Amino acid sequence: MEIQRQVPVEIFSRKDLEKALQRIKKSIWVFHLNTGSCNGCDIEIIDVLTPWFDVERFGIKLVASPRHADVVLLTGPITIKTFPRLVKALRAVPRPRLVLAIGSCAVGGNIWFNSYATLGGFPNVIDKLNELGIVIDKIVYVPGCPARPEAIIYGVAVMLGLVEQKTRYKKVKA
Amino acid sequence: MESLSTDNEFENLYSYLKKISNRFVEEEDHLRIVVENEKLREVAEVLSKTEGVFLRTIAASDERSVNGFYKMYYVFGLDRIHRNIVVEVPLDAENPVIPSIADIVKAADWYEREAHDLIGIKFSGRILHRFVLPDDWPENVYPLRKDYTVQDLVKLYRPEIIAKAREVEAEAAIIIPIGPYHPALHEPEYFELYVRGEKVVGARYVGFMVHRGIEKLAESMKYDQVPFLAERICGICGYVHSTSYCQAVEKALKIHVPERAEYIRSIVLEIERIHSHLLWLGVALHLLGYDTGFMHVWRIREQVMILAEMLTGSRKTYGLNIVGGVRRDIDRDKVNKCVKVLDSIAKEFKEFVEIAMSVPQVKSRLRGTGLLPRNEAASLSLVGPTVRGSGIPRDVRRDYPYAAYKYIDFKPVVRTECDNMARTEVRVEEVFQSIELVKNFLDRLPGGGIAVDSWEPEPYRFGIGAVEAPRGEVIHVIVTGRYSPYRWRVRAPTYQNLPAVPIMLRDVDLADAPITIASIDPCFSCTDRALIINIEKSDVRDVPLVALSLKGSRLLR
Hints:
heterodimer, A: 31% helix, B: 557 residues, alpha+beta, Beta Polymerase, domain 2, Cytochrome-c3 Hydrogenase, chain B, 3-stranded antiparallel sheet, globular
């Protein structure tokens, strides 16, 4: 059964993105995607949602389906086994597709950067995702092992353009 | 610890073992015997029939460059006399075949599958398919053999992930499973439940999505780098792994850790247990639909995180251990603050538990569900609160005392009801116990250094390090190398406990399945160092066996 899955990449300009970000400034819904993380970042994400940090007061809510999500919270170094599921989940996310890569693993593979079983972080899979016709409109990286709750909240604010981004990600050839 | 000669409980066993093989080494914490291939089944039979012996771990190791053999280490524990029996079986370098003991010792099942896939050991009497590694892994490449370095493996294995991704997306039918991405589970994991009406008749765990190749990575790292790697095995109970690794190396090389370092390790271990149990209780209440409780537990838990940051410098993943000691000291000021915070946690938690456990929905959902009978728990060699909820007082802190637990009197918390409530009560009780323990340790904190000045690695020594993690026993087996560990075997508690899930799910209402799965406190990032597909055959008849064996790993949806 051969299904033609190649959906033409829609044109989604910078202006469109800005417009869309304007619209979702308040009450964003997030979907949590663990791609082989050690749980450290994941429990910090739950920490952010529970009373001490309580982001629900900003209207940020964890949802169960990627189809409802405004932002994907991605943790882990992306193991080879989770990649197909990652693609499936990311394709279900509506445009603009916003990804918050949380933790050193998602940022650059951390201690697993050269293991045979991982792909070594989100930057390494972006071109593979493009090949499969998935465009990521905006990525914000939140480093830390594990990323602190404050950093995660800051990352979301940067994503939405509420605060200025201080540094930019540069791909360095190791 | 009583000495061997005064204890005659296992004397028969010891004399039998010494008779069967004249090559044995007796050390402080273990007896190591070399057994021939043909006699293994006999030895396993005797050990499994002896009351009070259980299988702790099995490690396969490629030692061809050292002595020309592959080796299997079977570690059996004798809880009551605080000792281990290590059965060592050398295997032919050309054709490593060993008789399977999975039919004698049930718990050996997964270990054999893993050894088959990662080292290429063949088990006579069992047909094993590719379980551990991905489908498209090259034939006859075994990652843990010494023929390959990590760099070789990365070059050898170029997975066709894009094609695979297309294939997964094109699958038309989807069986509604639990996982791998599911809002109730916070990790990629996958259970298939087989249901007749509203009753669960079987369960299947297809997982190991979080295989990151840790054991291989450690072979290319220096001794002092590995604790940081070990800590990243798990983000919830990472400190137990680094402690366990350090203890294994220290045992193997006979390094004596300063007393103060032992106390600091124990304090941090207990703080980790408090945070982990509170986390579990929150998630369990969330699964029961009692979200108010979930939020309140996490509010209380946040104080523990702040406490951990004060003591170690990090909220999680403390990075505190090195071989031979710890890196940070605790001063007077911190001790005082710590006691104050612990008192406030104890007070708030007590208040909370009284309210939460009297909620009728919580009570009725927990009591009588997820039954795990005592004899089944014993035969599967289960560990941690899972086994203590079934009336077996197994606790590494008492059975194989390590760190500062040597210096105190310790009694494990046990419940005999065998249901979800029993396991919950064990954990709640342990939170209070841990708070008392930390205060006790802080009170007795001795002076002195916090790490040994220097130590020399010696190759090919054998060491076992075990720690009671929040979820049960973590055990690391190490064979030392010249600059880095030669073979490092990690066994996490969930690895041992997962086979109990199908038993607990038998005749449970579908609605109670999530809480029952959660009641062993599964931690998949610990377990999934290896990729294995476990198929519970006993109850499930509706699944075609061909599909299970050959295309087993493809069944992941």
